[in-house]
Amino acid sequence: MKALVKRCAAAALAGCLLLAAGCGGTGAKTVKLDKKNPVTVTVWHYYNGAQQDAFNKMVDEFNQSEGLDQGVIVTASSMGSVNDLQTSVMDAANKKVGAAEMPNIFAAYADTAYAVDQLGLVADIAPYFSQQELDAYVDGYIEEGRFSDDSSLKIFPIAKSTEIFMLNKTDWDKFAAATGADIADCATIEGVTKLAKQYYDWTDSQTPDVPGDGKAFLAVTRWRTTS
After folding, report:
1. pTM of the full predicted structure?
2. Radius of gyration of the chain measured on its C-alpha atoms
3. How far is Cα 93 from Cα 90, in angstroms, rounded to an integer?
4. Quick one: which of 2, 105, 169, 223 has the fewest CB in 10 Å?
5. Do 211 and 200 contact (CB within 8 A), yes or no?
6. Contact, 21 vs 92, CB < 8 A?
7. pLDDT digits (tens, 9 = 90+) for 153-212
8. Pairing of strands 72-78, 159-166
9. How far does Cα 96 stand from its chain's mean position?
């Protein structure tokens, strides 16, 4: 993760210099790094609590080591919730009155990054990663950051969310023993729908004096995984 922070800081810096993503210009230019006159890279994120403490620690480590040697200082700011961050990014991108300047790096879902890219403010970071490095990630995660077929890369997958299926095995065993339900039906949404109705009816039937009190069969939750 520490290496990833360093990589992202370097990539965002280069992208900022090339495409001026939030840097106040649109022309490409070359800047030679100078440790005596460091360049500042701004990062907006939605981390809070323990996550923010951990991230700030890594930023401090970078600033005091490689950043110090290369002449790069990273400043990180939590913008609140994901929705707060999205609002701040779009306000900055659209130069709304009172909005802050566009950051060099910001966390975002693909739709927000795409909207900012349509304004010409997202850098192509593909040149700063080798194919071997990109191959270490899930193909779909990388492809989500490609908004066109020109091999450009606009999003790097620091973390991803996915839907997971959670099933109470203790309750399932009782249900299956009583009804003959087959757990293989969980493999399809149609099977899950059938099982959900079957489970509701079964639990409802156990209290005939209280109709309509059947229980839910499952819970699906969003789980964030670090790439």
Report:
1. 0.65
2. 24
3. 5
4. 169
5. no
6. no
7. 998 888 777 777 888 889 899 999 999 999 999 888 899 889 989 999 999 888 888 888
8. unpaired
9. 25
